[in-house]
Amino acid sequence: MEADMSFLGLFLEASLVVKAVMILLVLMSILSWALIFQRRKILDQAQSEASQFEERFWSGVDLAKLYKEISVKGGKIKGSEHLFHSGFREFARLRQVRNMDNLSVMSGTQRAMRVAHSREMDRLEKHLTVLATIGSISPYIGLFGTVWGIMNAFIALGSVQQATLQMVAPGIAEALIATAMGLFAAIPAVIAYNKFANQVGVIDGNYINFAEEFTGILQRQVVSSAPAPSPLREQEA
After folding, report:
1. Alpha carbon distance 38, 168 (integer Å)
2. Which of 46, 146, 185, 223 is most enclosed, with most CB atoms within 10 A?
3. What is the pLDDT of residues 33-49, one digit of tens each?
């Protein structure tokens, strides 16, 4: 009975429906942990890169020089660098257009940074909905396996004259394992989703604050009628 009551024994003795539920929950748990490690790496890196870039930005470096340094990265521009690169590139282009009023220059610059910001947020929020889905539906999938297993156990009892604990215990145990597996898949996914959603919110706030501060710098340059930035070699991301 000891071997039969082991996890493997209960799984092998379970009905096809309960087996399918268990396998599905295992796959969902594996996917959840893979996404947790991936998102943690990306979000931690995004926070670190944002801090490093803002430190460089506020160090007094020439903006045209900083733009050229970032342009060398090509398609690897991310985070605050992406906002700065998109905004400064559009600002430089519009300042060189004849008869372009200051309001239109700033409007175009802000629009370019909003697009860059939207793309960055899409990158950071990618797969978070998968974690939320796993966290919300796994307990119900496990509960379905539990209900099905208990139902089969009671149906089996109806065909015997005298019910004993030894007869009903395996069916109840395999049913409860399905619920436990559902919780095992759901709890880490929910915790990770909440943590990552909060982290994305912090990064989003940093991006918005940087974009506003950078817009203020460009606005002062426009108001003071400073000369337009020198033509820069543009590299499309």
Report:
1. 43
2. 185
3. 999 999 999 999 999 99
